[in-house]
Amino acid sequence: MRTTPRSIHQTSNGLEDHEGLFSRVLTKLNSLWVVATYPFASAGCNLSLHYASEISRSRATRIQLGNHVEIGKHTWLHLGMEGEHALKITIEDDCRIAARCTITAKNSIHLEREVVLAPDVLIMDHAHAYQDLSRPIKTQGSTAGGRILIREGCRIGHGAAILCDKGELILGRNCVVAPGTVVTRSFPPDSVLSGNPARAVQKLGMRHASAEQESLRRTEVELAKRGG
Amino acid sequence: MEETCSDRNTGPFRYPRHVTREDPLKWFSRAAGKLRTLWLAWTYPFASFGKGVWTHYSCHVARSAAPYISIGERVGLARDAQLDVCAAPGTNAPVLILENGSSVQRRGVISARNRIHVMPNVIFGPSVLVMDYGPDAEERADPSCGQQETRGGTIRIEEECWIGFGAVIVCERGELVIGKHSVVGANSVVTRSIPPYSVVAGDPARIVKQYDFSKGKWVLGCIRLAVGSERQDPAPRPTLLGAKP
After folding, report:
1. What is the predicted ipTM?
2. Between residues 187 and 226 of chain B, which touch chain A (CB distance below 8 Å)?
3. Which CATH number fits the domain that encloses residue B105?
4. Domain hosting residue B118, numbered range
5. Cβ distance of B3 and A58 shorter than 8 Å
6. Which long-range contacts (C-beta less than 8 Å, at least 24 apart) are formed by A90-96?
């Protein structure tokens, strides 16, 4: 008999809800099936691939998955068939990709260790070509595209889009991308990104220093006004 | 989804053909999608339903909304795409028109109350929202049915447009036209009309690029035309709602 109310996080002591258990079993089975039958470039141990995630088997030779990678519901890893036979999507150890993410690679998308993607994130290293007016955009195919490298420990917020039309896009270590941000260029480590297009709004661990600078600047402005 | 058996790896080591073919578990969802398409075509009273339509089994279309929806040829409704007709209008004309080759991608929502017209060969990205009415404070205060039907605006998305991932196109009143061959960037919020041959991005969406017919190339920023100047634009330019004269 339970006497104290338990929070929903304390489920490890009790049984899961049956429905949740069912989907977990399916996910486990799907992970085993995918690892056993898909020709990945390499696949680590302890993968968790949701049963409704979409990975194409014929293109799995260009995907590398590390250990303990988690891929959520309806997440879609899509690869272009153009170009040389080379790695296109690399997901290193302990990455967590939540539900409904889309990763579309033509050249190379590399997620380093412990990158966390929230739901609904889009990562795309190419775009539709639209420059030719005489043909519909639909028939113009994609641009040459670039390469995307997301360094370890980055966190990408819900609904963010990381797009690289050309060149190389590198998000430094431990960047935090706010929900709904559109990232179109590289950023140094420890930045907090926000906006459309993205700007670095803050530096992680530098909050105090930047506040100090801001107050200094304000004082200077104040002094200048008084002097004027 | 679109791979064929010829999509095999061409590296130094070749996997056996049966391994690089499509996963047999995916056949179930494809079969379910096929059945869903047939079911929609046979039993739903669509205003029109073209040839070569494909749907994912999880797309949302209400049977009661079907008479107001017109679907052209080779239109697709991907996973969790939603076609919604919010309030049944008085007339019998379809209010949600998807013309040939304009597919709604994953999680795309098109919600029509007055009229949303998507012309041929429009590309939608995933998670797009197109809505021709908005949360109107007045309307919430006075929810009388007769009033509701006249609220909101109309949306027309012209040929060959590309609506990027997560874009939101909302028209609360008047007419919103997205001109021919325009590009709407990812996560943009469009609330005004866009002239043809332009690229918009941001929240609210602004023109970042436009095709300059006098120079014959794409130029950054919005082209400001002198009053009365001749346009060599092959398509007639729709009126720019909200633009300053």
Report:
1. 0.79
2. 187-188, 197, 199, 201-203, 211, 218
3. 2.160.10.10
4. 20-220
5. yes
6. A90/A63, A90/A64, A91/A63, A91/A64, A91/A65, A91/A66, A91/A115, A92/A66, A92/A152, A93/A44, A93/A66, A93/A67, A93/A68, A93/A69, A94/A66, A94/A67, A94/A68, A94/A69, A95/A66, A95/A69, A95/A70, A96/A69, A96/A70
